[in-house]
Amino acid sequence: MKHIEVVAAIIVNDNKILCVQRGESKLDYISRKYEFPGGKMEVGEKREESIKREISEELKMLIDVEEDFLTVTHQYPDFIITMHSFICKCKDAKVTLTEHIAFKWLDKSELESLDWAAADVPIVQKLMRS
User: Fold this and answer.
1) Is residue 5 within 8 Å of 79, Cβ to Cβ?
2) What does the alpha-carbon distance between residue 27 and residue 78 come to, in Å, rounded to a whole number?
């Protein structure tokens, strides 16, 4: 089974967390689900470099990586994902969507109101406890 290693940013601004919604997908279990923005690491790239690049590409946003948060390994029906998440800050909360269909800035207490991709759920749960 295919194994993908990715990075995800938990972007915090003014005590709100950025949540982005995926578009339609042929894989119904991730179609239109919410996730933390990020993506695949490139060969030879450090995790912090990868997350900054992905957020710049996907959201046209500059972030500072503050700390490692949680690494999740999840098996979907078609692939296994290992996702390294990081607490990040942004200087400017302006979001320009290039790959997602929607975004929300939410308080921790509001996170569970969204329909999250399964791999992101452990991150949501840890955030709500912290």
Assistant:
1) no
2) 9
